[in-house]
Amino acid sequence: MRIEVIVLHYSEIALKLGHRAMFVARLVDNVRLAVAGLGTARVHHTSGRVIVELGDSDPAAVLQRLAVVPGIANCLPSRRVAANLEALDAAVDEALEEWSPKGSFAVSVRRADKSFAGSSPDIGARVGARIVARTGARVDLKNPDCTVHVLVVFGEILLGFDRVGGCGGLPVSTAGRLLLLLSGGIDSPVAGLRMQRRGARIEALHFHSVPYLSAASQDKARQLAGVIARGQQNVRLWMVPFGDAQAQIVAAVPRPLRVVLYRRMMMRIASRIGYKCGAGALVTGESLGQVASQTLSNMTLIERAATMSVLRPLVGMDKLEISRYADREGCYEISILPDQDCCTLFVPRHPATAAEEERVLEAEALLDVTAIVKACRESASVETIEAVWPAVGAQRVALV
Length: 400
Known about the structure:
Number of domains: 2
Number of strands: 14
Low-confidence stretches: none
Structural class: alpha/beta
CATH architecture of the largest domain: 3-Layer(aba) Sandwich
Strand content: 15-25%
Largest sheet: 8 strands, mixed
């Protein structure tokens, strides 16, 4: 079916009242960046909607990118129709040659142009009767299997059928910048994606243990950053060598306390880098009770080593919920690839699940904490990771 424009609707942005214009402007800018290079003619805002004019671009490729732009509630592929009922009749007839309702249907009419002849119920009844006459499909206004959308805007009508769900939330860069502690596991990229959809721009930090271990975890971190970058075009990824710090902790600290001390040292280093990159807080993929370092007492003790706020968007989620989210967003298959990250180096068999603060502070007193943090910060490198897209059609999108 011929598609000429994609109509983007937002929901949460509409609640921003006096600040709405700023959020909409940021969303339009982000959409332009997302579809840049795909041949789209123009992106503009009108009548409470963002319109993407496709030009010569592939609608499927454009939809793939728009579906992960934070701030978009849904996308409606549409065709343009002259602003009269006869042209609408002809467009419906033409569309029905390639499309037919799957089960029951309803017609939704929105008139931004109130001067258009005919009320919304009359237009809906006219289009619905035409579809019934051509296909015999059943009308269900309460719970339809599919919906035909008619948008009457100034100077034209937009006719759309299958609406594609967006990721919702707020546009990236409306809520500041956050530094994500990105491991090679399932949880941390999901944490970054969830905060991205609250309007934050994400930078990522990955601790690795090269040359003690292979560079596999670095390669995986780059791939995961490429998924996160889809919502904001690119991600700055900080690489911090952490093996020497772990070796010093192993040499001085009793086995059960090592994991807690590793995490406290990471918090100190991440805080320093967070200030350097302008982040307002750190983000982790921690989930309460999931592993030894994520008991309530250990998380509290670990956070005290940070000098900026620590956000844990997954703290109340279980592993199944997190894995389903990761699978939907396209990072699960990357996360389960085998690697050797710093979490597997020098890890004791039975780490403390409720470390005592006094014992932890005594153990840290045996270390030159300032020197370790400084060495890790100064040896950190940073690279820019561009968005990595699957082949068109490989990424699942939801019809709503």
